[in-house]
Amino acid sequence: MVMEEGLLLARHQNDRDDLRITACVILSTFVAVCSSFSYGCASGYTSGAETAIMEELDLSIAQFSAFGSFMNVGGAVGALFSGQMAVILGRRRTLWVCDFFCIFGWLSIAFAKDVLWLDLGRISLGIGVGLISYVVPVYIAEITPKHVRGAFTVSNQLLQNSGISLIYFVGTLINWRVLAIIGVVPCFIQVIGIYFIPESPRWLAKIGSGKEVESSLHRLRGKDVDVSGEAAEILVMTKMVEEDSKSSFCDMFQKKYRRTLLVGIGLMLTQQLSGASGITYYSNAIFRKSGFPETLGSMIFGVFVIPKALMGVILVDKWGRRPLLLASAIGMSIGSFLIGVSFALQERNLLPELTPIFIFVNILVYFGCYAIGIGGLPWLIMSEIFPINIKVSAGTIVALTSWTSGSFVTYAFNFMFEWSPQGTFYIFGVLGVLSMVFIWMFVPETNGQSLEELQVLLTGTT
After folding, report:
1. Which of 98, 202, 230, 331 has the greatest number of beta carbons closer than 10 A?
2. Residue from 460, 457, 455 nearest 141 by CA
3. How far is the C-alpha of 46 from the C-alpha of 39, rounded, in Å?
4. Model pLDDT for residues 120-129, shown as the tens digit of each residue
5. Is 276 within 8 Å of 375 (Cβ atoms)?
6. How many domains does the chain have?
7. 8-38: per-residue pLDDT in tens?
8. Are residues 70 and 152 in contact, defined by beta-carbon separation less than 8 angstroms?
9. Is 240 helix (H, G, I), strand (E, B) or coil?
């Protein structure tokens, strides 16, 4: 009871200064999402560089499909160690490790003379982005005030989309090796920037550094702000969960955590089985099959995606997570079905002059809806719903789910598309409908609540 009263008192005391956004929060978020930009470049790279790489290195479709999917294989490896590494090394040092793998990966691709170095670079890049996909949203969620936590964390997805857009826009215009050099630049910026940002106060509380918690919060909230209330809330809740659990791997399977684990895994499957990674990696192949000009399609796509992702950043704390997820799933499902219908019309030689435009427009609809919701919100919600004592194990399982399912979709997409373009998108449309049902039934609204309040709400920890 004493702890509960202290937690409630800390919450009320903290509310007055909660609306403040400092330059340090903005800088810390910017530095963190530099790696997200590199992640986006990696996601779009295979589409922009496909033709040139296959011709120069004489790759078959199977070899290039393997090259594309190897980032997801590496991502699964990175995901296995992401949570534990973020706890042992801290969020900032883990970002440095991400940069090491990404820099090695990009340079290996840029100077590759054969498929071996190409694949090795892609796997290394995958390990880096596998770590990024966990630590970046967690770090941002842990340093930002609750009223802007959604927007700041979803900026992770905005920068990913910006990286994809850049590669799509210039990918058909410049050499594939130069594209790889572009991808490495944000990593070098982050390596330097990490020196100037604070560690997560919640990680500091986890390792028992009470004084450093307040020091970190002062940098994040302002030196003239009384952070004692927020520090007390973080320290009290951290102590409560440590007393409540021994933090073993099996803890996350306790009954009180089952809902959060189901939501985390389910949202990652929703994101990956929608087919977005496969379409992103091989969009130029889709444009070719539809008869739409590749260069024009890539450029328009590159310009289109960023405003939609920016819309998600603006709306996530105004509308909430659930409405955006539902709207996103509905739009993606409709877009998938309409792409499938358009390919069916093309196969029957109906409206031959219009079907390429129909396909392209519906790809824009699909990705616009993906960018505002399902593209980034699963990682935001993952960073919010797990309490500190299971964040490592649960976060690792969730990230691993994302990367392994993404690897399957990425590798299978080319073969599915060769089998039946319309059938491929009908499958994605059906999975989109199932996603809507899952979101409606299981996903909670997390908007406007502190991470400690969410833990009480979702797990009943008191």
Report:
1. 98
2. 455
3. 12
4. 999 999 999 9
5. yes
6. 1
7. 444 444 555 555 788 999 999 999 999 999 9
8. no
9. helix
Q: Look at residue 462 and tell me whether its pLDDT is greater than 60.
A: no
Distance separating alpha carbons of residues 143 and 165, to the nearest angstrom: 28
Whether 79 has a pLDDT exceeding 70, the answer reads: yes
DSSP SS3 for 19: coil
> In 144-248, where does DSSP find H-type helix?
149-170, 176-193, 201-206, 210-221, 228-244
H helix or E strand, kind and range, residue 10:
helix 2-14
Of 461, 144, 150, 161, nearest to 304 by C-alpha is 161
> Which pair of structure tokens corresponds to residue 55?
């011709």
CB-count burial class (<10 Å; 0-12, 13-18, 19+) for 213: buried
Count H helices, E strands: the chain? 20, 0
Distance CA 343, CA 305 (A): 23
Q: What is the pLDDT of residues 365-384, one digit of tens each?
A: 998 899 888 888 888 888 88
Select, from the ranges 124-128, 278-282, 384-388, 409-413, the one with the highest average predicted confidence (pLDDT): 124-128
Q: Which residue in 442, 328, 438, 450 sits closest to 384, CA to CA?
A: 450
pLDDT interval class at 460 (50, 70, 90): low
What is the extent of the structural domain holding 394? 2-459
Q: Say which CATH number the domain at 313 has.
A: 1.20.1250.20
Task: Indicate the residue type of 2.
Answer: V
Closest CA relative to residue 252, chosen from 391, 420, 54? 391
Q: How far apart are CA 313 and CA 259, in angstroms?
A: 26
SS (HEC) of 324-367: HHHHHHHHHHHHHHHHHHHHHHHHCCCCCCCHHHHHHHHHHHHH
